[in-house]
């Protein structure tokens, strides 16, 4: 079934760039520098708190966008209205297409500080223009996938459903986020646009408003079950345990026709309520009726509930996952690392840039990752798996977008191959070791000495 | 100059809803309830930490979307593919348009916990379907406008420029956020799509990459100034104060042709560096060259810099403002408060719903707000300004979107009319008083007693 004809990002996206990118592009062009080859590297400077690793995501949407990026007449008219760009430059923009090469780690690859998530090799004016898009898209999707991986780990095999669209920071974060969550192991999303666009399983139960619209909760349950016999019933509108007892009464009323899959607890003390609900259901012989919990959940609360033995079978997670509440932004950078064939860096404090084109080698022992080395792309391969692979050349994808189900399975395998101390919620001790190769370290010294002179 | 032909939100947005909304809509229809009148209220249950008030935003984009919301053939095909919706319901969706009425507080109105930002009166199935959109859009824009108001307050009259698009949570958050920031008092945005779509002033300087691409910083400055004589020069790529001295040298070189407006400090100790930069510039007779600071700024850091006397003339603020880092989500709710003419509520702990249609009256003394009362919409008007005004009837706007500049000026006046203790960064003591009218309290008691029975 084809997805609806909606682009991954709104029309006019060629303008989703910062004014300074266009000013610099125009300057490069005026100075005859625009065709010089530049290397830009997209990486995270340091991991946010509460993250032992990040899960790379967003590259596939970015590649689709790069392939289609054109400056339409309305965008050009807007730029002309700013009164600072010469007609020659606007004509160049009218013919713009991204012609660069991209190497990237596959989506769902765990990455660490300073490791390139992607590297762009392109004429400098082109590589510059895509900075805002690349950072924004890879940033938000990596942020959200990384958060979801923690929630999924906390749920310890129980399904997690994304309920976050209402509280996500905008439409794009909700839809791209639903995909990032699914990649990271979330079972389903409530968001139909994400379901349609990416083929993610969709899920949903009922809202309080439905119960409220009836004169009694019992009547609301009866009506809903008639239409959705296998639904999950939301029981906390008035009194959670009374709601559970109404489900028991409904089971008695319906006999063999009772096929309700579960009850959903959405407020109150979820540990106590889940135990009491389980006891009530079991006493009524309704062992097959599952308990679904939601309401203010994040990975810490899920872990605490399960550690205390809460008999919860599945979790609905919204707000905290949808905005990565404990770490709502990444210290992401998109930096020039080479220009016209020579390595580049800067010396600003706290803002290291590893020069040149790079590769990351991940070493495994007994199936578990034991350390990475960031190396020069040009040096002889080091031991381990090279993480960056070519994904675009001359502005064209080298392969179609992998099916999401396949990417999701590979992601699960990559996470499972991390040392156990990284997969837990606490700070990994020791942190995962990431080294710099001797050749890269020597190149960095050389470039720093050159630019400092 | 017309904005580019890009919708405020991507095509396919009719699917930006949660599966349960459609399940309930179908149930209402199957049960013959779908045309019953429902009242839904959108409000924040409690203010997030570090917020003395919220700045309502997002209603204008929502109204545009509601006017145009239609289920296209591809969306219907997707819904059909889910295999659970009868053809009769899909036909109803094919003819769907939002026919409801909306009352809302004007964008840029300070609001408090439990005060309706908007109320929808519509056939229940329609009001239900728009929940996800309404919460997502009003939520993110209110969140971001509220954060920006703090940053603007901290800057104490100095211009603040939005540099957040690269770190915002997605394209929509960046673009709608730029508008929310501007409404709240931010002077300009770096984002061209936001500039084009909403007519926001755009600003930008240069990136480190431009400096890095040259063999020397002096050469990079010289080249850039030739094209952009009045630019702000980024001086921290290698050594901030050496960069400032290069600007001084450039001034000597160019003589009367030197028109550089400022230097930008983007890393390091901004207090010490701004003082030293100011001293260097002043000693060279360049008092007119301003100091622009950016890099990891938020309202607290800006306030601390200015309290310490940092000679900074303008601020570029990115990450922390663009994701509202200290409070990245609102405890927003969209709740059924009346159905078929009767008030509704729920009794879940910590999730109060004030029943019925409501109005908020804000009382002023000597031009300053001194307290609000949330009242029934039906009761005789209380003293003060009624905040909710009709903005949509029969699914059509009652007036066009107000010009952003006008909305921005009105917002500034509304913020200025808050008591001073609310406008500072610290917790307002005492908090702003919000009362419930006697008639509303009585109605709440009556509805709670009814549903508890």
TrEMBL record, chains A, B:
Pfam families assigned: NAPRTase, NAPRTase_N
Pathways per UniProt: Cofactor biosynthesis; NAD(+) biosynthesis; nicotinate D-ribonucleotide from nicotinate: step 1/1
Gene3D superfamilies: Aldolase class I, nicotinate phosphoribosyltransferase
Keyword Ligase: yes
Keyword Repeat applies: no
UniProt domain Nicotinate phosphoribosyltransferase N-terminal: residue ranges: 15-138
Keywords (A to Z) from UniProt: Glycosyltransferase, Ligase, Phosphoprotein, Pyridine nucleotide biosynthesis, Transferase
Entry-linked NCBIfam families: NAPRTase_put (TIGR01513), PRK09243.1-3 (NF006696), PRK12484.1 (NF009131)
Function as written in the Swiss-Prot or TrEMBL entry: Catalyzes the first step in the biosynthesis of NAD from nicotinic acid, the ATP-dependent synthesis of beta-nicotinate D-ribonucleotide from nicotinate and 5-phospho-D-ribose 1-phosphate.
Protein name per the record: Nicotinate phosphoribosyltransferase
Organism: Caldovatus aquaticus
């Amino acid at each position: 079934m084809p997805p609806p004809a909606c682009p991954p990002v709104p029309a006019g996206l060629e303008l989703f760039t910062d004014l300074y990118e266009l000013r610099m592009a125009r300057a490069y062009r005026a100075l005859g520098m625009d065709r010089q080859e530049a290397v830009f590297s997209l990486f995270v400077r340091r991991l946010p708190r509460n993250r032992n690793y990040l899960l790379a995501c967003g590259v596939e949407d970015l590649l689709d966008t790069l392939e289609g990026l054109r400056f339409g007449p309305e965008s050009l008219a807007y730029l002309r209205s700013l009164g600072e760009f010469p007609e020659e430059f606007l004509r160049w923009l009218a013919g713009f297409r991204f012609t660069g090469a991209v190497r990237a780690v596959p989506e769902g690859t765990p990455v660490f500080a300073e490791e390139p998530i992607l590297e762009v090799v392109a004429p400098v004016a082109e590589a510059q223009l895509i900075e805002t898009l690349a950072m924004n898209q890879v940033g938000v999707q990596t942020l959200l996938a990384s958060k979801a991986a923690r929630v999924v780990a906390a749920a310890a095999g129980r399904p997690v459903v994304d309920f976050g669209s209402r509280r996500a920071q905008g439409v794009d974060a909700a839809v791209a986020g639903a995909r990032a969550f699914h990649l990271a192991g979330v079972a389903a999303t409530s968001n139909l646009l994400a379901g349609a666009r990416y083929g993610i399983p969709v899920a949903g139960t009922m809202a309080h408003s439905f119960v409220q619209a009836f004169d009694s909760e019992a009547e609301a349950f009866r009506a809903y079950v008639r239409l959705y016999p296998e639904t999950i019933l939301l029981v906390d509108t008035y009194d959670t345990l009374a709601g559970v007892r109404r489900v028991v009464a409904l089971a008695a009323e319906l006999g063999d026709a009772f096929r309700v899959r579960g009850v959903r607890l959405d407020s109150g003390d979820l540990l106590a309520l889940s135990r009491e609900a389980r006891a009530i259901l079991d006493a009524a012989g309704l062992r097959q009726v599952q308990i679904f919990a939601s309401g203010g959940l994040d990975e810490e609360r899920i872990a605490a509930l399960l550690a205390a033995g809460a008999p919860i079978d599945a979790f609905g997670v919204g707000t905290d996952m949808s905005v990565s509440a404990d770490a709502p932004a990444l210290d992401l950078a998109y930096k020039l690392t080479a220009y016209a064939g020579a390595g580049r860096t800067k010396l600003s404090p706290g803002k290291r840039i590893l020069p040149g084109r790079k590769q990351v080698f991940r070493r495994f022992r007994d199936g578990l990752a034991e350390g990475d080395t960031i190396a020069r792309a040009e040096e002889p391969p080091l031991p381990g798996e090279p993480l960056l692979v070519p994904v675009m050349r001359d502005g064209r994808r080298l392969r179609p977008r992998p099916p999401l189900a396949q990417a999701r399975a590979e992601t699960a395998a990559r996470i499972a191959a991390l040392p156990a101390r990284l997969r837990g919620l606490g700070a990994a001790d020791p942190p995962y070791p990431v080294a710099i190769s001797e050749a890269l370290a020597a190149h960095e010294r050389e470039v720093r000495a050159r630019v400092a002179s």
